[in-house]
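Two quick folds needed for the group meeting slides. Do the first one here.
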Amino acid sequence: MKTFAMLFPGQGVQYINMLSSFFKKNNKIFEKKFHEASEYINYNLLSIFQEKKNINNYQYIPLAILTSSIAIYEFWKEKNGPLPKLMSGHSLGEYSALVCSNAIKFRDALKIVNLRSKLMQDVIINKPSLVLAIIGLEQMIVKDICSKYSPKIVSIASINSEDEIIISGDKSAVYEAGKNCKKRGAHRILKLNINIPIHSILMKPIAKKLQVLLKKIKIKPPIIPVINNVDVICETNEKKIKNALIRQVYNTVRWKEIIDLIKSKNILTMLEIGPNKILTNLVKKNKNITALNTNKLNSFLVALKKINMKNMKNKKK
């Protein structure tokens, strides 16, 4: 019996020397995936992790994160790691999940994410934006505060957990909304290392351009079910998967509901496939959940051992 889910991270997880423990072992899978991606976009993706000046290059960061997650997944398979019962990805991570579930070819995902990144960069020209994490305040209060800034845009970008909500939009309005959240009882307000108004209505104009490209891309039914961000369901229909990816750009990521759905299936082990452990830390807030990650080689091997042991125990039952 498959007893775990795989989670794939989105933007904001990058850091200097990311994946260094994997590359130190001269891992051919990682070299091959990064070479393939770099050749496609004509840019050395590995340089993003090696030089401080490149670590916030938002044109290529999403591609580097996508490639990182897929390389780790390929390494997992090489080590005979078992397949999960469910997959889901946070924002950008949804593309990683769709590639790893054989719904989208890696090259096509690079094409989509590359355009998505460029279009997002275009949105912020002459439009300063801000992304804040609101910690320790009820969703309805945050929603009420955000609604008071029209026609300025302050959107709920992601509901990550019971006590963590991400807001994004116009810089000055989001800043004021953050201050009001603090006054209404938020424990902390954190500025995220993202310079794009992710999952806000400001992103809606790019949806049509993304749709034009997606019409040319073949998407197959995932061989492992993928829970999407906007509807919190597993789609198999090509048209519906594409529609969800388009709406995801400017709608709230319903991450808490995704985790709740996984739990409702009696899946209490969750493995983050990516170069950091942000989703792992979010999942840890849930009681009775075993949260594992693959951000470093040692963590990867620990996770592989624990999940293999769990699977062996389940087979004996």
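Then this one, please, same format:
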Amino acid sequence: MPLDPPDLPPMAAAIAPPTVAAEAPTQVLPPVVPAMPSEPPAVPAPSYPEPASGTGTSPAFRPLFTEAPGLNWAGPGDSWSDAWAMQPSAGNHPAAGAAQDPAAGPEAELPLTARDIDLIRASLAVVEPVADRATAHFYALLFLHHPEVRSLFPAAMDVQRDRLFRALLGAARGAEDPVALRAGLSALGCGHRRYGTLTGHYAPVGECLVQALARYAGSRWDADTELAWRRAYRLISSIMIEAAEEAARTSPPWWQGEIVRHERRTRDVAVLTVRPDQAYPFRAGQYTSLETPWWPRVWRHYSFASAPRPDGLLTFHVKAVQAGWVSNALVHRAAPGDVLRLGPAAGAMTVDHTAGPDLLCLGGGTGIAPIRALVEEAAACGTPGRRVEVFYGARRAAELYELDGLRELARAHPWLTVRPVLSGSGPVEDALTGELPEVVSRFGPWSGCEAVLSGPPAMVRRGVGVLLRSGVPAERIRHDLVGDLAAG
């Protein structure tokens, strides 16, 4: 079961892609964007195809856009998945139902106590220095005893191993804040639906996790520590399962989206316009996770670069980063007709435009994408008299690829001010020079504003510090530090 904490996206790493056979198109579509459905269709609870008679395997996955001219799809049921799809025995097949841990007794069903939390943190402190070995051992146990779950994971497991331990650390550190813990785990449970995770997968994951921790916790592991971990995992898995099952009543585990426009703004930046297969709910300032046909089960976060539109189209800004699997595929390989998969919208960098103070926006590089979306949303439903200040930063002039569009909006809306900022050099009219957070500090104080920040994590962190020192209350500063959203 892939562990993908929403606030901790993976770092990219280079690896040769698995070979995926391209599906031959059966028909070439005309170069027009079909009309968007006006109402979302009813979405039933997720269902999975019955195995073919006598084979024990599911039929090949078929995307909705089988006629897309550039389609090269990979997903559940593809040849890579089939290579791992060993026949599960009746005893270890992850059928639906409650996630019961066969080794857990009635004591494991009791609530987590303060002493349990102390024991968990103490054991994690021992495991943390050898986390890479502990998590590798966990996945080895999981794939050895439950090979049927291997196809839920990406081919390269180095990033996934890092995610697991960070997720455990996050849960242990947040155990004393049940409201925040439930919110984070609920988002995690909903996000796992896109991998094909079922309720029955949670029990084997928990058992293998306990075994791996027992091996690497050394003298810190005893019966009380094991009981504490079983209680904690039962709490974690029950919250995730509950959230996933609730989400399944109203939305699909993923959406499919056909690329209908691919524009190169710079050598390494592309703007993608995507048409989802059904109505896709989101707010300006949020982000989603994308999976490409060329990297099955590798998901990366990207912000929406426009507010919700009547035609339902979605826009993303993507920068190809060094060794970035998904970003390089989207910038240098993707083309109109290719089909992506999208997870549900996430993120709290949304703004109430009907009330509130003036809005200050800091956008660095492709981090300008959600800022552009928020400006569009403010233009559509903003409060009269509320001003919006946008500081748009980059190293070189060519990287301010969205500046003309923002200036056009500023000419149409007097309440909007756009200030380009360059940390390097370049011929940009009225550009300010310096690092973005420091330039913003020169225009302060900003104590009467609400602020949103988007861009490289280092810029966001420095910007938050500048704004706090400038008098902006912490509760009025919004960002989604899911890391570099476009990285990887």
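Slide caption for protein two: The CA atoms of residues 269 and 319 lie 4 Å apart.
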